[in-house]
Amino acid sequence: MCFLGFGSYFxxxxxxxxxxxxxxxxKVNTAQFMALYAWYSWPNVVLCFFGGFLIDRVFGIxxxxxxxxxxxxxxxxxFALGALFNTFWLMEVGRFIFGIGGESLAVAQNTYxxxxxxxxxxxxVFGLQLSMARIGSTVNMNIMGWIYSRVQDxxxxxxxxxxxxxxxxxxxxxxxxxSCALIxxxxxxxxxxxxxxEQGKTGEVIKLTDVKDFSLSLWLIFVICVCYYAAVFPxxxxxxxxxxxxxxxxxxxxxxxxxIVYIISAPMSPVFGLLVDKVGKNIIWVLCAVLTTxxxxxxxxxxxWNPWIAMCLLGVAYSLLACAxxxxxxxxxxxxxxxxxxxFMQSIQNLGLAVIAxxxxxxxxTRGYLFLEVFFSACVCLSLIAVVMxxxxxxxxxxxxxxxxxxxxxxxxAAASEAEEQERLRQQNEDDLAKLLPKADAFSLxxxxxxxxGAQLPAHYSSCLSTLAxxxxxx
Length: 475
Description:
Blueprint: H1 6-12, H2 14-17, H3 19-26, H4 30-41, H5 44-59, H6 61-84, H7 88-116, H8 119-155, H9 160-170, H10 172-195, H11 216-230, H12 233-247, H13 251-258, H14 260-279, H15 282-302, H16 307-325, H17 328-332, H18 338-366, H19 369-397, H20 405-436, H21 442-453, H22 467-474
Helix pairs in contact: 1-8, 1-10, 4-7, 4-18, 5-6, 5-7, 5-18, 6-7, 6-9, 6-10, 8-9, 8-13, 8-14, 11-18, 11-19, 12-13, 12-18, 14-16, 15-16, 15-19
């Protein structure tokens, strides 16, 4: 289950690991290069709303997972063929197909986890899935350059053919994930027969009309999400060449430092998740993460300090924000609107990433890395403003986003006790009412049945009379 998304995350950042080679061999500028990330995001602006629906109502979890894994494999193959044939537009088509399967496969993976595990086990499984995804990204950053070099040695020269073969070799990880999907489908089907369990479902209920009911706090969370991730993922996509040109790192050193964000995220995400669960105060944690990210980008933009410091800070902040920001949606949205809220959040996140990726490439082509870092810092500043506004909006409205974990647990316990008491009183009222109502005997039931059939009963017969009342009439 954890390896289900390994190939998808490995191949997602193939362009970042081979930025120099892609731009040189395909003869494209940075804006065209970053379009490869934009084409991944475009289909997910829409598919985030329908991934859960397709799994629940159309394909089922087993078939859906296999189909999305096939999309990932086909997309990577088309991407590699575009390089082999020296056709950049075909590479863009491959990234589009890859994007169709990538995000929906993550939804399917989470659905499997919810179906197979419960309670504390589920938290561990989600942590392991996230860690395995980050390991896939890390391995890609550090091995794809080496694979390209070995293929170049084999063919005797660099070029589109070398790039295409390297990407095809990287696509083996997608085939591995597809085999995991097939094995998991077999195991789930076997468990369904042996344990009489139902297929897992996402439980998502998507209603676009719910958008008009979203609170100001939720919209601010959306702004934080878009502006923050816009300063992280596009930066990592362009980071390797940045470290080579500014800090004079070797390609291997640049790949290593560019992957440190994912390396830190793998072990720290479960740790920070546990910390936020124990302490609460989600807004404060998000504020700390945004400020740390701003400090990281400022150091990278205006200093020549060892970039390992800034990148380690960015890795810690990235891990912390993910653990504190995404759960806040559940605090401000009713349960029946959660599917819509999370779908909308992922949708605008992908829209923002697509637009910012293209903008970042254009800025780098025309202005250079200093202006690009200032641009990323500006995005983080917008996120910071949204966090401060969220703090005050939450405080003035009496919201619970910044409650401590103890206070939230205490109030949830009190609410549960009140709900139990109301249910007890309702049940008691129903029992008292049932005692006051006359009991239906055989005679009255017979009259009710005859009345429904259309039979004519004497005027003094009533389907509602008890046996005692009927006998008094006969006397």
